[in-house]
Amino acid sequence: MATSTKSDALLPAYLVVGEDALKRQAVLGRLRQRIAALGDLEFNSEDLDGDAAAGADIVTACNTMPFASDARLVYVRNAEKLKKADSEALVAYLAAPSPTTVLALEAEKLAKNTRLYKAVAALGKTAVIDCAPPKRVELPRKVRAMAVTHGVTFTDRAAVRLIELVGEDTVHLDNEIRKIALAHRGTGAVDDAEVGALTARTAEAKPWELTDAFAARDLRACLDVLSRMESASPHALIAMCVTRLRELICAQAMARRGSGTAGLAKALKLPDWRVKGHAGWARRWSAAELRAALASARDAERAMKGGADAEAAFLDWVIATVRRPAS
């Protein structure tokens, strides 16, 4: 396989894995460009789907000689969906891969302890390309960076608003940013009002958004989150809220002992970032209110399992629990 230097030599196979679909697209696009520089990809590429392709067919494609080129590309999407026998065929192939083929395996998730993952990783340090999604806290900054590539700038609040409306999928975010950029007028930054006017809500709220609003005793936020939920079970949601109540009881106890976030995280066996808001939330409840909330949750759950409308019973419990008593 022709290469310019040893450091940028193409490997016989790559695994592009992770839930950030936009990053996967970018990585695969760059890989295609590198191979296209060696010859016409129209005659030297083959696209297969791991959900349907047989391992033997993929291996045959890999062993096919390129036409008027130094290399050919065999791309397999949904590599995590390969059946075991088909995956094993690729593992055997990767033990002695063709020197004139680049096998590109794309997967949303593939465990590091699988034989296929290990077989690709053994080819070199750059063989596995991690496309893990950005953390939620990092996503607004990524949205603002994505906006610049489309010729516009976003305010911080605009980036947050877009994520609330569209969700965390980077491909969907990028598509919406492109639409907003085309509709944007003027030279100023896109603000949250413009995002709201130009973007339809497609994202379903996450359960943790409800438990955070519940812990904060923000009834308006609770109702807003619930209005954006379609698939979440009220039985699962009440269990999550009860877990949060118990965490807040623990937070109050740790506060009385003078323990900080690290002590609370250790007691709950959670990472520090998962409990950073607990101390503030715990101060919004009295110990008696937390105990009463647990008791009323038990009654609400009995009603939900006893034939009452589960969604209505859960909503009534949330409203009654979150509301502060009249002073």
UniProtKB/TrEMBL annotation:
Protein name as it appears in the record: DNA polymerase III subunit delta
Enzyme class name: transferase
Upper classification of the organism: Bacteria, Bacillati, Actinomycetota, Coriobacteriia, Eggerthellales
Residue ranges of every copy of the DNA polymerase III delta subunit-like C-terminal domain listed in the record: 208-319
SUPFAM superfamilies xref list: P-loop containing nucleoside triphosphate hydrolases, post-AAA+ oligomerization domain-like
A molecular-function term among this protein's GO annotations: DNA-directed DNA polymerase activity
Family per record: Belongs to the DNA polymerase HolA subunit family.
Provenance organism: Adlercreutzia faecimuris
The EC number(s) this enzyme carries: 2.7.7.7
InterPro entries (alphabetical): DNA_pol3_clamp-load_cplx_C, DNA_pol3_delta-like_C, DNA_pol3_delta_N, DNA_polIII_delta, P-loop_NTPase
Reactions it catalyzes: DNA(n) + a 2'-deoxyribonucleoside 5'-triphosphate = DNA(n+1) + diphosphate
Keyword terms, alphabetized: DNA replication, DNA-directed DNA polymerase, Nucleotidyltransferase, Transferase
Domain of life of the native organism: Bacteria
Ranges for domain DNA polymerase III delta N-terminal: 14-122
